[in-house]
Amino acid sequence: MPSVKDIEFNENGFVVKTLHGEQLAQSYRLRHKVFAESLKWVPQTDDGQEIDLYDLWGITVGLVRDDGAVVGMARLLPASGQFMLEKEFGALLPAGYRIRKTSDTAEITRLAIDPEIRDKGLSYRMMMALLKGVYQWAVENDIRYYYLEVEHRFFRTLRALGFPCEMIGEPVVLPPAGASSVAALYDMVRFDEENAIKKPQFLDWISSIETLDGEMINGRTSTYSNCEKLALVNTEA
Description:
Structural class: alpha+beta
Strand content: 25-35%
Oligomer: single chain
């Protein structure tokens, strides 16, 4: 994969950005809170950080509050390194499945919102802002396909929200948490084309960003989508 490009934009009172330095360290602590303490997917550590080998090549997109606190995150793994689906989550794949390892493909891992956020409405808005960040990172870095591994119930939620993920294989109960989980493939082009027809306002929202200077930039859909066709469909809708 060519050099990775960062993203940074305002969204609903938060800044969505590629994390570095102290904010990246905050994301490790948030991961520990979610995946070690709450979900118990990984063991707890003495330093309260959840870090693994994939962080050597992974990129973290975070949701940052106005006080600088990281309250949401997603780690994105480019195909130049190993995917978790190739090892830790290999049990989710059907026999003989070949994983795409081309430069237009990445993997979404460690997707999380601070569990201390009890307001369901706020938590929903935060998750949508974070998913917008994942979408915009793909636009910025010429990614068409994302792999992801999620609990089956969250997979259904993503599809209901307008993310046309396709399940790979059947749900599998994974230790140690015993959660019914699935592997899925998310196609940015299919997302753009389906939402241009079914949810044009949603597509307009996710493809428009406000820079930190307050400038609005519209039409940031996947580089693989037929943008002229999408614009025509939106106009006709």
